[in-house]
Amino acid sequence: MTDKDLDPIIEAALKEDMPGGDITSEAVVPPDSVSRAVILAKEPGILAGLDVARRVFEKIDGRVVFHKVMEDGGSFRKGNVLARLEGPSVSLLKGERTALNFLQRMSGIATLTGKYVRAVKGGKTRILDTRKTTPGLRALEKYAVRMGGGKNHRFSLSDMVLVKDNHLAFVCGIREAVRRARDNNKPGTKIEVEVKNFNEAREAVECGASLIMLDNMSLPVMKRVVRWVAGRVPVEVSGKVTLRRIAEISALGVDYISVGRLTHSFKSVDISLEFE
């Protein structure tokens, strides 16, 4: 992500945190004080968001020097130093919480994604995210998924067609929905169809869906669908996918497993900023 992409998000976060400045640091800390600090991992994880943290301090004060010790996508252990900073003490204090909020949450997403990716290692299945993201932070959260080894599903409703059960309530079946989607979008637009049983899967493939999403299916039905599809279109599995189930789902030979919990049920990683 570029600084141009990051700046509006960071500016909104800083405005939220300091609408009238940091009245504690500005009152208590000598304005000419200069400090060194480290960003320190308090537990293991996968790193994501270090450039976001860097940009937070740059937006506050261009005099802050931010040196990355690790890179996004790397695994860290408890006690690892992730970055070193030097600059005006008040500026470091002003940026501390906002920078850590981004870094802890993004690393939490990357860490959880990494667990799912490792669970399907050795097979062809790839882990996808969803649009179940924090409003306004989708770009950051989907970036964090990539740092954990996952892949991004569509970024927005404008990227591809995904026909779900709520769409089918307005038309006479999957075939008609796919026809309308094809006729009303530019050529080459991907059309994915969510299906709930074998017959819906067969209909979606036969009427020209680009890929199908098996939603909340039992393992035996998934297996039957994958065998029948036989590679004609990619197959995605979605719905109630946990770490306990993911290996057996992947073993069926599905192409993708989408996991909403990567961005809506992650645990932030414990990371701190400590003055030296």
What's the topology here?
Elements: H1 3-17, H2 23-28, E1 34-41, E2 45-46, H3 50-60, E3 65-68, E4 75-76, E5 81-88, H4 89-119, E6 126-128, H5 138-147, E7 161-163, H6 165-168, H7 174-183, E8 191-195, H8 198-206, E9 211-215, H9 219-229, E10 235-238, H10 243-250, E11 256-258, H11 261-264, E12 271-275
What would your notes on this structure say?
- The structure is a single chain.
- The chain has 276 residues and is of the alpha/beta class.
- It has 2 domains: 3-112 and 267-275, Aldehyde Oxidoreductase, domain 3, CATH 3.90.1170.20; 118-264, Aldolase class I (TIM Barrel).
- It has helices spanning 3-17, 23-28, 50-60, 89-119, 138-147, 165-168, 174-183, 198-206, 219-229, 243-250, 261-264, and strands spanning 34-41, 45-46, 65-68, 75-76, 81-88, 126-128, 161-163, 191-195, 211-215, 235-238, 256-258, 271-275.
- It has a 6-stranded parallel sheet with strand order 6-11-10-9-8-7. A 4-stranded antiparallel sheet has the order 3-5-1-12, covered by helices on one side.
- Strand 8, helix 8 and strand 9 (211-215) form a beta-alpha-beta unit.
- It is elongated and about 70 Å long.
What does the radius of gyration come to?
A: 23 Å
Amino- and carboxy-terminal Cα gap: 30 Å
The level-1 CATH class of the largest domain: Alpha Beta
* Unreliable spans: none
Question: Quick one: how many beta strands?
Answer: 12
Tally of structural domains = 2
Provide the CATH superfamily of the largest domain. Answer: Aldolase class I
Q: Residue-averaged pLDDT, rounded?
A: 97
Name of the CATH architecture of the largest domain? Alpha-Beta Barrel
Q: From the helix content, strand content and strand pairing, which structural class follows?
A: alpha/beta
Q: The CATH topology of the largest domain, please?
A: TIM Barrel
